[in-house]
Design brief:
Keywords: Coiled coil. This protein is mainly α and about 120 residues long. Helix content is about 90%, strand content about 0%.
Length: about 120
């Protein structure tokens, strides 16, 4: 009888240990799944951030190119006025020079913004 009780106690202990081991195993795999999901979310967030950066850089570069085109137009007009123009055209030439200076400053600012975006890190 005592032997049967010991046998029953062993079976109970073994089944209790197995139950705890299964719970620990389930918790371990659940934690692994959570970690994989976090890693996957980080990868997706990094990719989306890089795509947004690229779109923003392209937009800023488009703005720079538009200003460069405007400056080229103003320079051609100034040359034309200098070659074919009257004395009254000096005011127009000065306006073009002012516009070119303003555009060059905006180009500088845009290029600084491009560098800021290019080297920015994704906030954690």
């Amino acid at each position: 009888m005592l032997e049967n009780e010991k046998e029953g106690a062993k079976k109970f202990d073994n089944s209790e240990l197995l139950r705890k081991a299964n719970i620990d195993r389930e918790e371990y795999f659940a934690e692994l799944d959570k970690e994989r999901q976090r890693e996957q979310q980080k990868i997706v967030a990094d990719k989306e951030f890089e795509e947004r950066k690229q779109r923003e850089i392209l937009d800023l570069e488009d703005q720079v190119n538009a200003l460069i085109s405007k400056n080229r137009f103003f320079e051609k007009e100034m040359r034309s006025l200098l070659i074919n123009g009257d004395e009254g055209d000096n005011q127009i030439i000065e306006k073009y020079k002012d516009k070119i200076s303003q555009n060059e400053y905006e180009i500088y600012q845009l290029r600084c913004s491009i560098d800021e975006v290019r080297y920015s890190k994704r906030p954690e």
